[in-house]
Design goal:
- α4 packs across α5 and α5 packs across α8.
- By secondary structure, this protein is α/β, with parallel strands linked by helices.
- It is built from 19 helices and twelve strands.
- The chain is globular and about 70 Å long.
- The mean pLDDT is 95.
- α1 links the parallel β1 and β2.
- Strands 9-6-3-2-1-12-11-10 form an eight-stranded parallel beta sheet. Strands 5-4-7-8 form a four-stranded antiparallel beta sheet, with no helix packed on it.
- The longest helix has 27 residues.
- The chain folds into two domains: 342 residues, Alpha-Beta Barrel (TIM Barrel); 110 residues, no CATH class.
Length: 460
């Protein structure tokens, strides 16, 4: 799908000054003042240990902690008021939300309650009837915990009500929101507990195999991500209904959706569940073409961006291009090689999205400072950009905006020229990730006029 030429900012909701939706409208106003057309966020689901938005408790639920500060502080009071309300329109809106989201909301609400009762132990450590989702046990639990489930449904209702209001505000201002679908889900999630047959699991519920990538130049033991692997044969038999529902809710939440780890739609590196490293895995084929043909038959449009980083095979390229999905270009990956590097701007195609760096990369200033200035890739970068290095972040932004890629996205850290102390995530580490937040002083110091001028100069 061809998008409107434009530029935007990557900034997760938790990185806004308020740390939630409370600052969202002000940020949207500043995007407009800065001549931007896109706002990219990370997944908005409820996070677990470590706070990673790529390891959520649900692929469908929203994170109640992101509800605007004023409402979040009084959420329990709001719930008590709602139970006593005689506002028939609000009550009808809540019931309509529950009816429209029944396919995940009931089970997710029960999951959150049972997880708390079980001291936040993983679901496969619960008592067998609930672990295996015995029908009678589930019905009894729903009756017993009806009030607590009602409270969780109200929290979800409040989150989505506020999110859709923010999205409407953004769209009315001419801003499109780019969301994110992680290809895998967390093991300790409502998704796996409720869909055990759709994942490769042992009888005790533990994963038979887990996700990751094989050993390479960067890691002699590979990367063991640990997510359970889909049983694609089972998913194929019911017409990929779980994926259809997942895409459906994301296309309601966002204008454009980034598909994380796109190469995983062609093959998966399956690691034995008991292994501690990724060395003994094997490549297993994934029916990505069948899945996307099914999605194309269901949805009028597929406004997708493929995170096609890693080993891009001919099959990955065919899957991306056959369905006209925009691929990624990362400027930090462009330098130090030959003139045919696909991340160099002169090799871009229009149906692409260029980033100075992503949430997984160093900031541009951090990337520049962490390398020796005489390093070949830094010398190549300075020569290519005709840069002195004094404002390398703005030189990279100009290169991204000036390219033929339809969309150019820049992390807020690069707009502000921040070093790696503002880095969002360092892959394969578990500490000090996902917690960076923009201070109000930084928020107020963004050079909106400079952004606007560059966007206008390059017809964005």
């Amino acid at each position: 799908m061809q998008f409107e030429r434009g530029s935007g900012i990557l900034l997760h909701l938790t990185s806004l000054p308020s740390g939630d939706l409370g600052s969202a409208r002000e940020f949207i106003d500043r995007l407009v003042d800065g001549g931007q057309k896109y706002w990219q966020v990370l997944p908005l689901g409820p996070t677990s240990y470590g706070g990673s938005p790529y390891g959520c408790l649900s692929a469908f639920a929203g994170n109640p902690q992101m509800i605007g500060t004023a409402e979040a502080v009084t959420l329990n009071d709001l719930f008590e008021d709602f139970k006593r309300t005689d506002d028939k329109e609000l009550a009808a809106e809540f019931h309509r939300f529950c009816d429209e989201n029944w396919f995940w909301l009931d089970d997710y609400s029960l999951f959150t309650v049972l997880r708390e009762i079980n001291n936040y132990a993983a679901w496969n450590e619960w008592e067998l009837p609930l672990r295996s989702r015995d029908k009678a046990a589930i019905e009894a639990a729903k009756k017993e915990h009806d009030e607590a489930m009602f409270a969780e449904k109200f929290r979800q209702f409040t989150f989505f009500r506020e999110w859709y209001a923010v999205k409407k505000y953004a769209n009315e201002k001419g801003i499109k929101i780019i969301g994110d679908i992680p290809i895998y889900v967390a093991f300790d999630s409502a998704d796996v507990w409720c869909n055990q047959a759709r994942f490769k699991l042992n009888e005790d519920g533990s994963p038979t195999v887990v996700s990751g990538v094989p050993p390479d130049f960067f890691s002699s033991t590979g990367q063991r991500w640990g997510n359970p692997i889909y049983d694609w044969d089972v998913m194929r038999k019911d017409g990929f209904s779980w994926w259809i529902e997942r895409v459906h809710i994301n296309l309601r939440m966002f204008d454009i959706v980034r598909l994380d780890h796109f190469i995983g739609f062609t093959r998966a590196w399956e690691i034995p569940g008991e292994d501690e490293t990724a060395e003994n895995g094997e490549w297993i084929s994934v029916p990505g073409f069948e899945l996307f043909r099914t999605l194309k038959n269901v949805f009028d449009e597929m406004p997708f961006i493929a995170e096609d980083l890693g080993e891009v095979t001919d099959e990955v390229r065919a899957l991306r291009d056959d369905f006209e999905i925009a691929g990624l270009r990362i400027l930090q990956f462009a330098f130090g090689g030959d003139a045919y590097n696909t991340h160099l701007p002169h090799n871009y195609i229009p149906n692409a999205v260029v980033y100075t760096g992503t949430h997984d990369n160093e900031t541009t200033i951090g990337w520049f400072k962490s390398a020796k200035k005489k390093a070949p890739h830094i010398q190549h970068c300075l020569k290519y950009l005709k840069s002195s290095g004094k404002e390398i972040n703005w030189d990279m932004i100009s290169a991204a905006y000036g390219s033929v890629a339809t969309i150019a996205i820049v992390p807020m850290q690069d707009v502000l020229g921040l070093d790696n102390s503002a880095r969002m995530n360092t892959p394969s580490t578990t500490h000090d990730n996902w917690s960076w937040r923009l201070s109000q002083e930084q928020f107020d110091s963004v050079d909106l006029q400079r952004l606007k001028d560059i966007a206008a100069f390059y017809a964005r």
